[in-house]
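A favour, since you know our structure tokens better than I do. It will help me judge whether the discrete encoding reads sensibly. The space below this message is yours for that.
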Amino acid sequence: MVQLEKLDGDRAWFGSGSRIIITTRDQHLLNIFKVDSKYEVMTLDDNEALELFSLYAFEEKEPLRDYVDLSKQVTKYAQGLPLALIVLGSDLKCQNIHQWKSALDKYKNIPHQNIQRVLQISYDSLEDSEKDMFLDIAFFFKGEPLADVMEIFESCHFFPVHGIQKLIDKCLITVNDCDDKYVWMHDLLQDMGKEIVREKSSKDPSKRSRLWFHEDVRQVLEEDYMGPNQIEGIIVDLPEGDEEISLHPEAFRHMKELRVFINRNARFSCAPNYLYDKLRVLDWYNYSLSYLPQNFQGKNLIVFRMRHSLIKKFGDGFKPKNLTIMAFKSCSHLIEIPDLSSTSNLKELTIESCHRLVKVHDSVGSLEKLSDLSFGKCSKLRMLPRSLKLRSLRKLSLRNCSSLCDLPEIECKIKSLRRLVLYGSAVEVLPLSIGNLVGLEELYLSYCQNLMCLPIASIQLKHLSKHGIGGCTNIVKKMREDGQSCDLPNDSTTMEEEISNSSNGSTALQLSNLQISCSHSESNFFPLYSFFTMFNSSTSLRSLYLAGLEIVSLPTSIKGFVTLAHLNLSHCKKLEEILQLPPNIRRVDVEGCKSLERFGEVSKILEFNGSHIRSLGIIGLTGCDKMHVNIWSDKVQNPLLWKGLYDYDATLFPKTHIPDWFSYVHEFLKDNEMVKGPNDHIRPREKEEWVIDIEGPHCLEEISGIVLYVVIFLFFNDTMRCKRICRAAKITSNGSNDVCRIQDGVQLVNIDWYKKGNRTGYHVWVGYSNLQSFDLKVLDNLRVQFYPKSHLYAGMVPFYESYRAKVVYKNERRANKKKRRDEANVAKTPDQQKFN
């Protein structure tokens, strides 16, 4: 501040045209002096980092051949920080490989002094409470939700509202800009914090404030240190193969200042017999007793987690009035959630895979601040609180609670609830009071196989954006027994009339109002007609999950779902055709639909038809056997099999290495040139783009557009999700300065399992442009540049890649005739051409 006041106190001190550049570690100073603009200096990417390091270590832009792997380890350690790259490069210069390896081992435990000294400048300017928050984040809370960290620091009287912002201004921590904010810091700043604590007592770890190194942790917990120590926090993270700690019975009795204890993976020979009430965080993996220490009241506890532990009860004296987060995972002896009326500040209660849990105390239903209540995979849970009065509840999950038959009554309007998950539960009836969930955005009922009926009229769906009801087989059975409709109108106008007549134009429709005779076969039965009629163009439904239902044909009324972006019809094994899709759909999943053979949108895409839905990005076709036969059969006009296209093909494996059961690949490759990679191994992608030149001239008045596609066949041995194989493409002409860009395309995806765990698949990306970006009526040669994804998937082994382009003419017959004439003309001598 003093420097800025004396050097830049008034802009009038400087002449017209002057530019003042301020470099600082403190963003707050820039706000005080109202600078015109800010620029945050970013860390270097991997290539830049390696070049900078090499300039100092080898006086070359690239590392020496024998030092390449070690140099990459250094740049990974430096995380793009120029200071560290320069210091380490200078320090390792002229050292042999053994000295490099030794130095790297040292840096992982003790930072280089010159790096530590510079980074610590910002830390030294902090106040004591701010230093404590920085060190706690470095040791325990990096990557944790900001809201949870703030709660913990508030209980420690660190004044985090002011202090956290100070750490951000000093560039010591960062907080992401998403709705769910998390706290982060650079790895070298984290190491700097750990080194500050270690230097306080390099020989005796019991005199340090925080412990993290596994050897120091073991020493303190296994030995008997007489008298109080200074330890405020411990995190136990043992290396693989070193799993047990022989806990000294009195180890925790001397830790009167202990605020944080986190055990990530260690087994203890016994449980502690004493814990002090200064604890704010108790996160214990594999706790070995069924109860907590008798003296422990937990009155200052904020976070309480147990994983894979024997905990059964907390003890009568356990009254954690400040507790905000309680979580138990795979605690096999936990039978009941006890009276929690004293934990009035509880915000999150998560119970997962506690297979003996039977009952939840009624007090849980009256916790005013509870926002997240989850009981996942608690297979014996039968009794929830009799009523829910949780005005702050945002998420209620009962996923795979296979013994839970009844839901509690909802006694008040819960406007805050956004997500209700009953997936796989044994619930038979939804209570009428579910209508009090007026703010519901996500409702998941899939595979509730005992669910008999739905109180549709009581559910206000105006905010619902995601809904799943696939696999609810008893709803189908119940509707059959009641003689309700299975004859579906396939016209959107009929659907709208049905809404108007049955529910006075509202977005809800009672099942009892549907009295239409069933004339279709059982396999044609579609049990969700009432759901289709519940929605109109004003709803906000974005995701619909209908997996596993007995559908033969998707009603064309689905096109009325104008906001729908994701439609999941996977494993609808009787589904034969999809004639229409919503106009703004982005993704369709039909995996496992073995009977599907007519899919209008796929036909449009493969026929290079520009009328297909442009928003559609991915169609998942895994296990759609009949669709694959149609797509790769030479009996249809499949453009992927057309000859004479402008293309660039690269077969990375010899054809003999492609399994026989990958039959459609052999069909595709039989007339394509086979290009072996070196030594029959996979050839790495050598460049960031693939280029295809299309000779001209091209008259735009005769062209409908241009279609681009990428085909990749692959083996893979790891989990693979559907992602784009092509980032974008662009089209240019050497006779124009205009550029036509294709950012969006549609991708067909197939992934199949075969014997012995082998998996194969193909990805087809199709992009289309009408070339309207070009101003000229006649273009010279066209150049198409594809920009594929560089690292597609972990475990993926592509053996064939094809990049193709086709100019689509308004009159294909005339265009082909002209092309043949031009080719014949090229073969003639100059005199023959002149005569012609």
